Amino acid sequence: MKPTQPELDRATWADADRAWRELEAGNRRWVAGELQNVGFAPPSAAEDDQAPFAAILSCSDSRTPVELIFDRGIGDIFTVRVAGNAAHTSGVGSLEYGVAHLGIPLVVVLGHTGCGAVAAAVDQTPVDGAIARIVAPIAAAAEHAREHHDGDADALLDFAIEANVFQAMADLIRRSAIIRDRLYDRRIKLVGAVYDLHTGWVRLLGAHPQQDTLLTHQAAD
Ligand SMILES: [Zn+2]
């Protein structure tokens, strides 16, 4: 069932919570192999206006198809995909459009296990061309992970993947007054999550641990 779309730009925390429960339920179906939306409707059945209930910033990795992971159909999820799920300008703008013009109550930053972009940043692998600009925002998360984690390489990567989700969330808050205002007014929720490539489960990380500070600090700027 699709959550009722809030009146445009009148989303509330309750709408955001309903949206997350729908995603969670879809992820359970994905793990259980009981997909309900595999058929998708033909193009002629598409509605004239889109009314997605969640926006997701996720990685371009071919093993993380967002609609399948959450078992949702066409028109349900407003998706931004970029290597390493970082909050670049085009992604920030797209998410702003989603919350301000489509009334989406929930924004999810979705990382995933075994992320090559995060691994490259952790290992400080030299990269060419525009790939360097893709990896740059992930570098701070990778550095944080190297400084605060002394486990083995796999554990370090897992830690860095979570740190990178929180980094993208913080970048979103810092760069977007549109998102900030709606978080501050409790009209939308911004949560992080990590998709496990092997089990299929999406693990909720929740809101950014310093969200209130980030909002207060930015508001004072
Ligand atoms: Zn990735």
Give the helices and strands as they follow along the chain: HEHEHEHHHHEEH
CATH architecture: 3-Layer(aba) Sandwich
* Order of strands across the main sheet: 2-1-3-4-5
Shape: globular
Q: Low-confidence segments, ≥5 residues, pLDDT <50?
A: none
Instruction: Give the helix level as a range of percent.
Output: 40-55%
CATH superfamily: Carbonic anhydrase
Distance between the termini: 42 Å
Query: Which strand-content bin applies to the residues?
Result: 5-15%
Oligomer: single chain
Structural category: alpha/beta
Bound molecules: zinc ion
CATH fold descriptor: Beta-carbonic Anhydrase, Chain A
Characterization of the model:
This protein is α/β, with parallel strands linked by helices. It has one domain (13-37, 50-220): 3-Layer(aba) Sandwich (Beta-carbonic Anhydrase, Chain A). The chain is 47% helix and 13% strand. The protein has 8 helices and 5 strands; from the N terminus they run αβαβαβααααββα. The chain has helices at 13-32, 66-69, 89-101, 116-123, 131-148, 153-175, 177-184, 211-220, and strands spanning 54-58, 77-81, 106-112, 189-195, 202-206. Helix 5 crosses helix 6. The radius of gyration is 17 Å and the shape is globular.
